[in-house]
Amino acid sequence: MTAYTILNPATEQPVTTVPGTSAAETDAAIARAEVAQRSWRAVAPGDRASLLRAFAAKVDAHGEELAQLEVANSGHPVGAARWEAGQIRDVIQYYAAAPERLTGRQIPVAGGVDVTFAEPLGVVGLIVPWNFPMPILSWGMAPALAAGNAVIAKPAEMTPLTAIRIGELALEAGLPEGVLQVLPGKGSVVGQRLVDHPAVRKIVFTGSTEVGQQIMAGCAKHVKRLTLELGGKSANIVFADSDLEQAAATAPYAVFDNAGQDCCARSRILVQAAVLDRFMELLEPAVKDVKVGDPALAQTEMGPLISAGHRASVARYVPDNAPVAFRGSAPDGPGYWFPPTVLAPVGFDAPAYTDEVFGPVVTVTPFEDEAEAIRIANDTPYGLSGSIWTGNVGRAIRVARAVEAGNLSVNSHSSVRYWTPFGGFKQSGLGRELGPDALDAFTETKNVFISTQA
Ligand code: NAP
Ligand code: MG
């Protein structure tokens, strides 16, 4: 185990050191999880539910502590970090209602009774990215535990602090040892071991498409179950018949929230050509008004990027000759700051237009009519989210049905709700998280026929 240092992205100062788990330690954790899971699946449904409710209550009692940890570790504005700590509590609470409701079916057959059972998978490996350490941890962890699986969570190397604390809170709440383990460390070591080890029966991965593809290939060797939540390049489609003031006032938050480090970021604004000039006039003050600064302050709306390396990667999309229409502000001095940036006009082959920048950079592209808007929106390998702004209900429904993406909002940029399904079309992912059906991703259906002839 070699310790490494965690930096505060707003100050570049060390926060703490964390032990990096080795491959051998990962194997030992998997062995503990296998043993723990055999007992956990045997815990009576009502008791498993009540342990999960106790876990949610613990998280709630430590909500402010978790939020402050995220401010220090990830640079999230404190208001956002409080929402994220609330989300992890709510997701655990929601799936705490699942154990007693994990019903199978009784299917009519001749000569007996046929029933199905929703069996847990075993040990689930959860590989979490750095952009939303708490919510994304909870989306896999809570339904997996509720269904009777053991969970090994691998937080992103840079942002393990809240996950480590949540692992401790689970034990304090009474979850048995080994049912939830948090292993900080490198993806290439811990994450890779979870993918390669045959006793891990399922991987839930959120992160880059590149690593997601490698993980999918690794899982194929074991026919390992897999949920993937990858990137996005989502469109915010603004029609001339929409409430243009509202569309422009909200567009910055749909892409600059979490400094653009959001797989759902609406990073391509598509505007009907007839209202493009007016929209840009309205967008400029909205972008300049985004409050970028110290994440510890309640009024802050956007913090820094996660690391120096990531800032350099975002900056490559805005070279000196980039077509910057206008920009917001960002602090000088230490911290990985990058100002909200609007690029227009941008060619369809410009990297800032085609790639997931994962930073506060948005492009604006005009379109003529509904058909062209749909064509442009779908002209990407991604398909995660998107927004449609129009006053015409028929158009709203037509376009929502035509855009190839898993999560759309009309006249809103609705964020993720834990009780509705979330996931991507095309290269944005595989499978769905959250919502009423999430348990399906953590169980196998077993069919049993019982003869009445004996
Ligand atoms: P990443 O490399 O895909 O990392 C995501 C998670 O996978 C981290 O926990 C990482 O661990 C782990 N990992 C890395 N290599 C692995 C391997 N070979 N086997 C198993 N696990 C592995 O993402 P990133 O490098 O942090 O970010 C790169 C880009 O990915 C971003 O700029 C963005 O475009 C995209 N991204 C998307 C999302 C999303 O929400 N969809 C989230 C994050 C990033 P380490 O932290 O130790 O490397
Ligand atoms: Mg990486």
Q: Which helices and strands, and how do they pair?
A:
Elements: E1 2-7, E2 14-20, H1 23-40, H2 45-61, H3 63-74, H4 78-96, E3 106-107, E4 112-120, E5 123-127, H5 133-146, E6 150-154, H6 161-172, E7 180-182, H7 187-196, E8 200-206, H8 209-220, E9 225-229, E10 235-238, H9 244-256, E11 268-272, H10 276-288, H11 308-315, E12 324-327, E13 341-343, H12 351-354, E14 361-367, H13 370-378, E15 385-389, H14 393-402, E16 407-410, E17 429-430, E18 443-451
Parallel strand pairs: 5-6, 5-8, 6-7, 8-9, 10-11, 10-15, 11-14, 13-14, 15-16
Antiparallel strand pairs: 1-2, 3-4, 4-18, 9-17, 12-13
Bound molecules: NADP nicotinamide-adenine-dinucleotide phosphate (NAP) and magnesium ion.
Magnesium ion binds next to loops.
Structural features:
binds NADP nicotinamide-adenine-dinucleotide phosphate, 14 helices, 38% helix, 454 residues, seven-stranded mixed β-sheet, alpha/beta, Aldehyde Dehydrogenase, Chain A, domain 1, Aldehyde Dehydrogenase, Chain A, domain 2
Radius of gyration from the alpha-carbon trace, in angstroms = 23 Å
CATH class of the largest domain: Alpha Beta
How many structural domains are formed by the residues? 2
CATH homologous superfamily heading of the largest domain: Aldehyde Dehydrogenase, Chain A, domain 1
Biggest β-sheet, characterized?
7 strands, mixed
- Estimate the mean pLDDT confidence: 98
Assembly level: single chain
**Could you please say which CATH topology of the largest domain applies here?**
Aldehyde Dehydrogenase, Chain A, domain 1
Q: Helicity range of the residues?
A: 25-40%
Low-pLDDT regions? none
Overall form: globular
- Our count of helices gives 14
Strand % is 15-25%
The end-to-end distance, rounded to whole angstroms, is 59 Å
The side-by-side strand order for the widest beta sheet comes to 12-13-14-11-10-15-16
Ligands, ions, cofactors: NADP nicotinamide-adenine-dinucleotide phosphate, magnesium ion
CATH architecture label of the largest domain? 3-Layer(aba) Sandwich
